[in-house]
Write a structure and sequence with these properties.
The protein is of the alpha/beta class and 380 residues long. It has helices spanning 13-28, 45-55, 64-69, 85-94, 109-122, 136-146, 182-185, 189-205, 326-343, 351-370; strands spanning 2-9, 33-41, 59-61, 75-78, 98-101, 126-128, 153-161, 208-216, 221-223, 230-232, 238-245, 250-256, 265-272, 275-280, 286-291, 302-305, 374-375. The chain has two domains: 2-131, Rossmann fold (3-Layer(aba) Sandwich); 133-375, 2-Layer Sandwich (Dihydrodipicolinate Reductase, domain 2). Helix content is 33%, strand content 25%. The strands form three sheets. It has a nine-stranded mixed beta sheet with strand order 16-15-14-13-7-12-11-8-17. A six-stranded parallel beta sheet has the order 3-2-1-4-5-6, with helices on both faces. The chain has a two-stranded antiparallel sheet with strand order 9-10. The radius of gyration is 21 Å and the shape is globular. The relative contact order is 0.16. The structure holds alpha-L-sorbopyranose (SOE). Alpha-L-sorbopyranose binds at residues 162, 192, 196, 264.
Length: 380
């Protein structure tokens, strides 16, 4: 079997999620390549070495340009903050590397377009880690919709609620808290959380035509970790928007980091002519399904425990009835991506798919400023 050498840039929360996936995937899936964790790259050498030792990376780099220049790296995994995605991805494409980039693709659609052009020009396989598509229950939802079980879709409803930034003393910027710094993150909950909801929605329900949004920044100033000064907060702490899909369905999306008691409550519900489905990240191995065609007094919502061998991905794991979790969605993404690479087929979400999500985010943020309905730029 051919080896495939991975070079990872960044080592935070996502660095761990991705490394875990790279390590685990070969034990459960029949892969076309043998993955080798060749190098991890981060500016802090001591921390990078500790990370490499823990996860089994063979070497360490402190300059991502050096990592890209290495001939022994086949695949570059970008898990550094959002402000460097574009520069690294464009350089990686020019260096002929395949690329797995952490979400969101970029800070804006304009940045994302350059990235899409670069990977298309270089012809390198590419994907963005919108991992929730590959939770088996979510993949099952996609199968049911594609089979036409729901019929015409009327409504799409999604939420992603958290509560970790309510404390006004929480600073912005630096490791871990760059998500609060607009220069680095690009936006707040729109790019960080709603982008997940939008990616899933585009995949399940097709493209979005128009949006009407409102955003709020509840804490207007926070101390910046790097400058030590109190600075204006530029991110959206909360965002809610209405959307019209091209298939005629109406949607509502909401996200906040100020919903006390909620840590990562990503939920969606879809209502169709014949049936409805609902999913909840806190109960991620279940899919709720209601089918109006069921007859008699037992018609009602079914809670499908998505752990049978015939359910997506589950035959690769344990025996029926035994659940898997969040980290497995990343394992599935690696397995699917490498299969696509071997077959020469793009595997979604590609950079281009993720650009569509970016366009929706751009329209949402614009609408929040103009107070008007805004059209979503069409993907070419
Ligand atoms: C933010 O707290 C965050 O970690 C996001 O950045 C992830 O993309 C999301 O999956 C969970 O929440």
């Amino acid at each position: 079997m051919k080896t495939l050498n991975v070079g990872m840039i960044g080592y935070g929360f996502m660095g761990r999620a991705h490394s875990n996936a790279f390590r685990k995937v070969g034990h459960f899936f029949d892969l076309p390549y043998q993955i080798v964790l060749k190098a991890v790259c981060a500016r802090n050498e001591e921390k990078a070495r500790a990370f490499a030792a823990r996860w089994g990376y063979e070497s360490v780099e402190t300059d991502w340009k050096k990592l890209l220049a290495r001939e022994d790296i086949d695949l570059v995994d970008i898990c550094a903050p959002n402000d460097v995605h574009a520069e690294i991805a464009i350089a990686a494409a020019r260096a002929g590397k395949m690329i797995m980039c952490e979400k969101p693709l970029a800070r804006t659609g304009a940045e994302g377009e350059k990235m899409v052009r670069a990977v298309e020009k270089a012809g390198v396989p590419n994907t963005v880690w919108y991992n929730y598509r590959r939770i088996p229950a979510v993949t099952l939802a996609k199968q049911l919709i594609d089979e036409g079980r729901l019929g015409r879709i009327f409504h799409y409803r999604a939420k992603f609620l958290q509560d970790w930034t309510i404390n006004p003393d929480l600073p912005q910027g630096g490791t871990g808290l760059w998500r609060l710094d607009v220069k680095v993150a690009g936006s707040g909950v729109t790019g960080d959380l709603l982008a997940h909801c939008i990616d899933t929605a585009l995949w399940l329900n097709g493209s979005v035509d128009r949006v009407n949004a409102m955003t709020e920044t509840f804490v207007k100033e926070r101390k910046h970790v790097l400058s030590g000064k109190v600075e204006k907060v530029g991110i959206d702490d909360a965002c809610a928007f209405l959307a019209r899909f091209s298939n005629g369905s109406l949607a509502t999306f909401e996200s906040t980091r100020y919903a006390r008691g909620h840590k990562a409550l990503y939920t969606f519900e879809i209502n169709g002519e014949h049936a409805s489905i609902a999913w909840d990240l806190h109960d991620l191995h279940r899919l709720q399904y209601f089918d109006h065609r069921d007859q008699g007094t037992t018609r009602g919502w079914r809670s499908i425990h998505v752990t049978d061998g015939e359910h997506p991905y589950m035959a690769k794991w344990w025996v029926p009835g035994l659940a898997i979790g969040y980290e497995h969605s990343f394992v599935h993404q690696v397995a699917d991506f490498l299969q696509g690479v071997a077959e020469g087929k793009p595997v979604g979400p590609t950079f281009k798919d993720a650009l569509e999500t970016q366009y929706v985010c751009d329209a949402v943020l614009k609408s929040a400023q103009t107070g008007k309905w805004e059209k979503v730029k069409k993907i070419r």
